[in-house]
Structures are given as structure tokens and as C-alpha cells.
# Entry
Amino acid sequence: MTPPSERRPAGRGRLVLAAAVLLALGLVWGPTGKFLLDGRNEIERRAQDDIALELATVRAALGGVFAGTEALLRLVASEARGDPAAVDLDRLLAEAPLPRGMIAFAQIADSLGRPLRSSTASTGASLPAVVGHLDLLVHAPTGMVVGAPTIAYEGASWTIPAARVLRDASGRVVGSVGVHVDPQRLGDALSGFAPRDRVIVAHRDGRQLLAFGEPAEIGNAHRRTAALAGAPITVSVERSRAAIESEWRRQATSPVAAAGGASLAIGGLAFVIGRRRRFGFADPPGEHDVFAGATAARALSDGLFAWQAGSPTMTLSPQMKATIGLDEPAGEFPIKIVQGYLHPEDREEILSRLGALLAGGALVSRSVWRLRHRDGHFRHYEFRIAIERDASGAARRLVGSMAERRLTTGEAARDTVGDPETAETRRLAEILDTLGDGYILYDAQDKLVLCNAKYRELYPAMAEIAAPGMTVREMTEAFVAKGLVDTAPLTAEQWAARRLEEHANPQGSVLHHLKDGRWILRREKRLPDGSSIMAHTDITEQKRGNIAIEDRMRLFATMLDNIGQGVVVYDREQRLVYCNRRYVELLGLPRDLFLPGTPLADVVRQMVARGDFARMRPDHELRFARIMEMMAHWPRPFIAEWIQANGMTLQSHISDLPGGQSLLVMADITERKRHETEIETQRTRLEAIIANAPIAIAVFDKTERLALRNAQYVAMAAREGIDPAPGRTLADLIAALVDARGLDPDAARTEVSRWLDGARQIGDRAIEIRHHSGRIIEAFSGGLPDGGIIRFFVDVTERKRVEQMKGDFVSTVSHELRTPLTSIAGSLGLLAGGAVGTLPDKARHLVSIAKANSDRLIRLVSDILDMEKIESGRIEFRSTPREIGPIVRHVADTAQGFAARYGARIEVQDPPSLARAMVDEDRLHQVLTNLVSNAIKFTPEGEAVRVATTATPSGDWRIEVVDRGPGIPEDFRARIFQPFAQADGTDARRLGGTGLGLSIAKSLVERMGGRIGFESASGQGTRFYVDLPMHEET
Amino acid sequence: MPSRELARVLFVEDEADIREIIELALGTVGGLALRPCASGEDAVGAIDAFRPDLILLDVMMPGLDGPTTLRRLRANREHAGIPVIFMTAKAQRHEVEHFVALGAAGVIAKPFDPMTLAEQLRAIWRRIPD
# Structure
């Protein structure tokens, strides 16, 4: 018992209540005062009352268990009528409104006690394997038998078996059904209830089944015993006198005690109002719960209630109280009061249901009811009710549990208040749950029958509200109130009203635009029986997709209108679906031919009539048919090109689109065609040029592969035994050529490398190729814009031969000329020299004339030979770095004799020492000799010819030959270096010149990389100079 | 430089006119003892008897030309050391080198100056190493 300070004060309210009840029942007790006056007798009496109370409580607890047990057994028995083997024991156990955990397991045995079926699907108890079977079976005509405690499963547990006989229709015993009641839980429950009492549970025949608590002193205890209805059980409660006395003394001082109490004995159960604290309801709930014994209270979360037939009160567990909102500590309440805590709308229903249950003969009921919680929201509660009936079937007692349930749609469908469960509704609900749309089904009275999970998903805010029984109006108003939908431009009320109108007369589909941006399509249909079904589909994606598609379509159309090609789509029947502007432009036909739906044939007909497809062979009518056939039957994709009547060349690319449509993309290719023709013309021209050129031509691409060659090249290569296959590289071909020469590898490599370098040299430098056949080929390489090389090969054998011949001829001729000249010059020389005696003056003069001219002739022959060599390029040149000084001096020395004859002097101004140039010594000697000779010839007698060497600013050595002669006439100056140029008057030839000297000198100097020039002024002499680049010794 | 002056020259020239010129140039003007030969064979036969200091050899001759005559002459050990000077109308540089390579001491071009021919020979003679 709890200390006084923790007791919840009963309060005056309860007192009033108690008084009211008592008045109502016409039973009033006096105040406590009378009670106290009796003294010891009173204690005795109260003790008895207490025990009675305890007993009643225990009895109630156990009664619940056994009532439930009996109910189960009867249920099984009725199911097994005729065929015990067919009973679905699992289901029955699962459905049995039994206190959880109390029943260990159930078993059906045949008439000989052999087990037919077992089930451990008991009410929450978990069991190890069950061993054995009922060891006690008393075949009584009716009723339940309870066996002695027996060990029924492995381990140390033991049970109280309870059984019932199974009979067939004729009453013959066919078997038995037994349950094993778990006494441990029973004991636990009971022991928590009255720790100081001793509770004994016994079989009616006296066998003790259970006992808890401390045994009281024999003879010094109060004891009461009561039988348990419906089971052959007795319950006894014992309490020692000493305990009673001490307890009462304590309580006598409390105000509650002064309030007194009343006990009402109803039937076999005694409940006390005002003695609530005796039940410990002031104590924390659950400790002394009246149902503890029935329900393994510590684990219990269900609300429990119990009611005795005819009783105005019912007992509620703490959880039950909490559920319905009763704050009173008492466990037992007048039914009217309990009803007061129910929602008015539910009250009638519940009561009528209960009434129906009681009257109906059912032993157990398990159903889900939708009730309004005190917070106003609907909740679903599962009720498990067991009804204990007497032999006539009248209800004697009712025990039940109530627990909140979250329902599946099917269950919700089943359990609308007042509607019995129908298989069809359940099936419908199951189907609806598999669909992708949100569905609501309303009955003919516009009350919600069911809605599926998808609906709740679509509108989470409505999930709580959408429960069976809600009306369309309520749902609509809630929808609007929650601000789910954008009702603009209507007000919320208008929208709701419109919605209800629509519901009354559903027209089809309506699109809602929700405030959260979603688009929901709602379709509604009224069914023949007056009910209506509503489907909600979220088409947000589709809608967005549609908008996106429209945007894209527009963009696409804009794009198409701005591209350079005509685009047209025809459908399966060749009717126009879409075309862009350009298409119309290109064809240049009236616009009405290009309206959607217009046949392609009309367009083609017009085109043919106009003269388009100019180059098509068949005439007009056949043309049309041909074109249509092509459009219809040619395998796609294909390209068609034709010439319009106006000269345009059009090209159309025709392909298939999905769905059997055709796509044509048309372009004006007139320009392109023209270019192509031009290119083609040029190409053929070029090819003709190359093919017809009298020289071999080979074109190599930028990777040095042979790209093009003419027949001459092929022939030339064939002569060398080489196949100039296109694609062969330059290096490859050259290597093959060199190979054919049969050189040793090193020489061959060098040769190949030399040729390759030469071939790659773009320019006008020709490489001479001498074939072993004796042919001489000159090869030139030219560069191509794309990086390739074009090679020309000219057979110069003939030219070379001719040159050779010419050279040989000149050589021979000069030799032939020189031979007689030797004699002439020799003779004249001797004569003039006086070797054969003195000549008479006139003879000497003539001899001198002859000698001079023969000398000149000799020089001419040399010069002609030189000229020819220079011109043919066969002149020998050996340039080496030479000091200029010695050469100049040598020239001067050599010319001394000549100078003396003309009465002139040569003055040499020494060049700076180490003045060097790259020169062919002999040729420079020749040039300088020529200049000096000329100078000597023109210098007046007694004067000197000066030869000087200086450095020029431009880095040359300048060798000057200066004379004091008459100078070079103006009109001669331009021609002075030309062969055989004549100057009137001062003809050098008169003085023995050949007329070739200066031109040879010029050629030679230039060959040495220098320059020759002169300065002359009439009457002031002439200065000839030769500039030679300085050679620096490195 | 040879220890003594040039004195005896054997020359070979197929053209009679030129032979005369040479004779005058070398003999009358040059004061040298001469043995003119009209052909290579002639020279080969005459050399033993004449024992020249120097041989002047025309290049272009029918029959034995200059270079061949030279080889023949050289074949005989006795005459192998006699210096030879070629005379030719085609005195190209490469030809000069060619003749030098054959063993000639020098080359004289035709036409030559008869008044200085002997001097030219002497100049070449002086340059010959002993």
C-alpha cells in the first residue's frame, strides 16, 4: 500500500458522485461515524469486506482468463463440429479475444486423446516446442475441464490445461480441444495485485492449481473463497488478522476513510465505489490494475474494459481511461459516465454495436471501429471482445480490449462505422491500392467509403482527414481550407461550391492547379447505384512536358524558317504536314499548294507542267508518274537532283520519319553545280595538259607520295625498270632508281640522299640524271600550294649532244685554225724579229701589219673559244682564296713587254698585304691583262698606266686600271661589254683588240662573284675597276 | 736547276711549216743544237743518236701522238730522265695538268712567239730540279 502522502485525494467531487450513485441506487450508508462506533466488530467486518473485495478482484481477473479460454474452446468446438481435423486453430487463436500471453498453446485431439492439430499461435506468448499433450481429459457432457498443473513443454514451465470436448452433430464425442493456460503470467499478475494476501487457485475438486503470497497462520486468517463461473475453479483469498488490523488502524485516520464507501454486490462480482484506493487506483496505474491478471498488465498497452450483464457500471483499465479521456482514478464507472466520454456521434453506434454483440450469441468479436477521438479526429480502434454466456446463450459477462490501429485501405473499407465488412469492398480497396492514380469512392449518400494510398500520397494534408464517413462537402471544404488549391479567379467558397456542383453532375475531367505547382487531373464518374468514384492523376510532368514540347516546337519552327534549306514533312498519304518558308521560296509556287493537308501530287503536277525536271527523259505525263512512283516506292533515304524550269538546280534529301511520315530537305545547289562543273573542266584540262606534255611529269602530295603522273613519266620509269605506282613515296622511287645502278651500299646511300635533297629543292635548279643508257635527263622540282611537289623531267640528251658537238666543233675548229696560225705567226714573228736578216723598210712595215693582224687573229680564236665555253657553261673555274697582290704584280710583269712597245709604263700600287679574294687565278690574270692591255693601248706615249687596289665600303677589293687616254665615247659606254661592240673612231680593234675582251672579262668577273665597271670622261682618261668580295681568312 | 745551260733540243712536229719555224726560232734565234723529227717514231729512233737535253713534243700528231711518244721514249731507261715539253694548240688548264701528270716539265701553247720560244724553253729548263 502506498504511504498516505502519495494517495491521490478523492476530492469532494467524488463524494458527490458517490452520493449520487448511491441515491440513484437507493442505497445509502451512513457516515463513517457509525462505522467507527462498532469497534472491533467493524474491523472484522471490514476485513471480511476487504477480502471479499480482493476475492472479487481476483475472481474477476481469473474470470476474464477463463472466460476467454472457455470462449475460445467453444469457438473451436463449434468450428470443429463434425471434423476436428479441419479446424484452423492458428486463426482461431490469433483471433481469440484472450489476454495476451495467457494461453500457451492450443491442441485438438481425437477421441482417444491423440493430437490432430496444434497451434502455438497464442496470444503473444512464445513457446519452445510443445511436448506431450493433454494428460487430463474428462469427458464431461458439457463444459470445460481444467486439468492439474502439468509440465507441458520442455524446460521448467508448467501449465494449467483447460479443455473442452468436441462433439459432432449427433452429440458423439469426436475429440477435444485444449489450451494450456500459462500460470506463470497468471501468477505474476495476481501477485502484483495483493502482495500480502495469499491467493489460492484450486480445482473444484480441491486440487490446488496455483498459490501466491505468504501463507497465513492457520486459524489466524480471514479467508474467503469463491467459485469461478464457467470454469471448475475456485479462488480463495487469505489474509492474516494481524495484517488486517494494522492496515485498518492506519487507514482509520485518513479522511477518505471518513468518507466511507459503499459496496455494491452485483451478482458474483463486488465493486466498491469510494474504496477506489483499495484497488490501488490512486497508485500509479498498472500496478493494481484489475485486468493485470487477465492481461499480463505490465506489457499491456491496450485499453481494457469489462462489464457484467445488467450492471450499470463497467470496469476500465488505466489505459482505457487514458484513451477515452477519463481522468478519474477509479477503475469502475457507471456506464452512463463512460458514455459521456464518447463522442455523441459515436455513442449510439457503440452502444448499439455492443448491444448487438451481446444479443447476437457471438462468443468473440474482433473488429475495427472508427471513432472520434476526443481531439476531434477520427481514429480507428480494434476491439477484441469476449462474451461469456450461460447455458442458454445469454450474455453474462463481457471483457474486451481496445487498441488504436493504423488501418490499411482494405481494413478502412471494412470498418466504416455501421457497415459490415464486405469482401467486395475489401477487394476493391486492394485493387485501388495497386493503381497509380489517387481514388476516392463515395457512397450514394456522398460519404467516403474508401480512398487509396495514392490519394493520400497526392494530398498528404488530406491523409488524416480522408477517412470513411467523411462527406464530399467536408472533404471539399477541408481541401480548400488547407489551401491546397489555387482557386483563382474564384474565391474559396465559390470554388468549393462549384466543385460540389461538379460532383453532383460529373462531366468528365477537370484540371486543378495546386498551390505547390502541381497539376492534378480529376475525373469523376457516378455509378449506377448512386456512388461516385473520383480519380486524381498527377499530370505535372506531362503538363510541363507539354509546355516544353510547345516551346520546343516554336523554337524548332523558328529555326526551320531561318535555315537555308527547304524543309517539308508529308504524312503517310503524301499530304503536307509542315513546311518552312524556304521550301515555298525554292519552289516558287502559289502558297495555297503548301497548306497543311495539301497533297504532294498537286505540287509535283504544277512543277511538271511548268517545265521543271528539265533533264528527265520521259515527257511530261510520264514524268509526273515517275516522280510520284519514286516518292512512294524508292527505298529511303535517297537524294534527288533536278533542274527547274528557271535554271535552278535543286537537290532534295528524302527520308523517313517515325510514323510513316516523309521528310524532305531541299537545297538550291545551282552555284555549287556551277563550281563543280568549272572545277571539273579545269581538272580535265589540267589532266590533258599533263597527259599531253612532252615531258614527264610527276606530282607528289605533301606526304611525298606520288599522286599524279603522266604516261611519259611511266615510260621513263619503265625504262629504268621501275613501277611508278601511285602512292609510292619520292624516297622510295629514288632508292629504286639508285638501286638499279648497282652501286655499293654507301655510295648508293649517298647518291639517294643527294638526289632526294635535289628533288626537294624547289626552284629552277636542275639536277642532271645520267642514265646508264646514256640518256641525260634534267629534273626540276616545283612547289605546289598544298605542300606537294611537282617534278618535271626533260630529256636533254639531244641538247647535250648538240652542245657537246658544238663544243667539240669549236674546239676542233680552233685547233685547226691555230695550226696554220702557228705557221703564219711564227713566220711573221721571225721576219719581224730579224731572225732571218734585215728587211727593207717597206717590207718590214708590211710584215709588221701582217704580224699584228695574225696576232689579232690568234687572240680572236682564243676569245671565241672562251666565249663559247662561257656561254655553254663549260668554262673551267677553280676559285681559291688568293692574295690579290701577287696576281696584279704578275700581270704587270707580263705586260711589261707590251707596255714598252707602246711607250707606256705600268705603275703598280701595291695592294694592302693579305688582300685576299676567292678567284680563279688564271682567269683573274686574264681579266686584268685585258684591262691593262686596253689601258696601255690608249695611254699617250710616255704616260703610265696605274694599277691600284683599294677596299670599298661594301666589303670588296677594288682593282683599278687607270689610263690617261681619251676616255670612252658616250654612245659606246652602254655597249662596251657587248661582244664585238664597235666604237667609231677609237676602235680598240684598230689597236689589235678582238672585240670580245671586255665581254669575256665581264663574264669571268661575274663568275667570280665580282663586278666590273668603269668611269670615263672625255679627254680625261678611263678608270676600269674590278670589284671582288673580300675573303676573310677564318 | 741543272748544272749547265740548255744546249741540245730534240723536237717533234708533224707540220713541216711549223717545223721550219721552230728550227729558225730555236736554232737561229735561240742558238740551240736541234734535231727536228717529223713524227713520234722518228723521235724514238733519233733520240739515242742525238742525246738531247730537252725534248719538245707536239701533242696532236697522226700516228704516235705526243703522249704516246712520250711513253715510248720513257720506256727506254736511258732516255727516261730527259725532260719533255709539250706543245699544243689546246692548252687548257686541265690539259696542262694532264700533261704534267704524264711527266711533262712544261707546256707551250701554239701559236708561239718564235722570237721568245728558246727563252721559254730555257726558263723551263732552269726550273727543272736536278
